[in-house]
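>> received
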Amino acid sequence: MTDTSAGTSGSRRRLLVHRAAVLGLPLALLGGGIGASAVVSGVLQRSGAEHARLATDAAAAEEAAALGDAVRTYTSTLESLATVVGDQPALTDDDFQDLTATMTSLPGVANLTYTVPVADDPQAVVRAQQELRAQLGTQLSLKPQPTTIGEHLFVVSYRAVDVVGSALGADAAAVPQIAVAATEARDSGRVTVTAPYVLLADRVLPVEQQQQSVLFVAPVVGGPGQADRGVFRGWVSASFRTGTVLRSTADRHTADQSGSLGANLTLWDTTDAAGPQRLATVDPGTALADVSSGADVIAASRRWRLQVTPTGRAYAEELGHAPSVAFTAGSTASLLLAALLFSVTSGRERARRRVEQATAQLADEVVSRRHSEESLRTRESELGAYTTVVADRLRLPLARLTALAAASRETETWTAADWQDRLDAVDHRLDRARRLVDDLLLYAQVSETALTERAVDLFATATLVADEQEALTAHLPEDLRPRIEVGPLPEVVGEPWLLHQLLARLVDNAVVHAPAGQAAVVTLGAELTGSRFRGEVWRIEVRDRGLGVPLEQRAGVFEPFAGEDADVELGGNHLSLAICRRIALRLGGDIGVEDDPRGGSVFWFTLPVRSTAGVLTAPVAAPSTAVPALG
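>> returned
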């Protein structure tokens, strides 16, 4: 009786263990499937958020481009008006109305004016009023206001577009923003833009209805055929309400599926970085404060910043329904698989899985070992090649040093000046040899350098490179010193030291290869290429007016010691362009050279477009000559 009870108890325990094994695996599969579905849903959620962020970056760039086009249209239109006015011997009010008739269609324009300066003297004001009445054919009444700039700025012709009343005869010097912009336009001879202010005609409106506005100001001088040729006459100007301008340039890319604007747009005047001023806001709905992007817009003498923040609805549409669909589908599939596995009890499957895992691990180890061996062979080949090159390149300077030493033992008539000349030659050759060794070390180390990614202001870096070149060439005559023009450059994410090396070497290459007897002219610029779907990249260009690179030599121009003869004195470009290529590839970009249609070459490299949000900003060092001249 006891034995039977013990056997029954053992069978029950084994049955319970078997049932636990049979139920445990399906339940584990079900739990794992649901967990994996949750992970996939989270990955899709993050992917959708990244897609929304990239879409916001693209929208900011497109909106800034549209706004920049509008600004350039305003600037060129006002410049043309100033030229036409300068070609008139005497401008009447009817002439001004006719000339400005087509400008009333410009988006956001509030009024158009012709303003002249008059000295801050009562008698001068009286005389100016009499002369202007005769010239304009109107009963103009000048209304002087207290001024701090030593003169009045009277509006003598006025065209209202989107304002009530008239500012004819008003003294614009009473508005500090206009006085500053007018003075700058007269001094520079170019169109300027005021800091934001509220138009006098709008100040009678309730505060919530008032808009910030800006004034585009163009100087007027006597034209070629006029008696006062080249003499300053006054200003033509156009005021624009920035909110209206921003709404008019809002691109369809910031609209959601319903056609309404899917992002909040905020435009700032960041000319004074310490105190940015808000110009306008287009606010269609509740914005997501943690998802936004910005782009810069240059408005003549001012710097604007356009901030784009998607609304909650637009963000949800970019995110899509993929996360919830993935979770539901994954959980359902896990349930079905668990039910199927519950009916299958095969140990062979578990054994097969173990064999597959072991096979996969073995294959991974084989691939990893093959890669290691190939890398080792490549390094060994490079080491042998560079050993030969270094020996060959250093042979000539060492031979000349040996010859100099031998000559010094046999020559007893050398003066101190002779010794100085020869020591200078020794120092020069040693310096070139040292630079070759430094470049070889850098060339070998670039691929192994740990990347400490920072937000790098390429404009500040390029300006620093230009200052360093100026210091390196300060000993040259004024007419032979290089002219380096730094255009607008973006802020990128990368290794600051490598980016500085890349720009410095490309600029120095352009300077070294300037035509003999001429000053190098180098221009730096950037453009955004690619698309949101294929990947956007910054293309950074270094243009020169040098001798150019023949087509048959371009394929090897970035190879080590390209185009140099080992039996001649060490040149200035021995490894520089090869280092540039390694740096560009290390930073995830590409590099190349093209002809400049205007003469010379365009050396370019690309960098991936990445957001600088949350990335530490790299400090900009003071100018130095730490990067040696390559020539």
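>> DSSP finds twelve helices and 16 strands in the chain.
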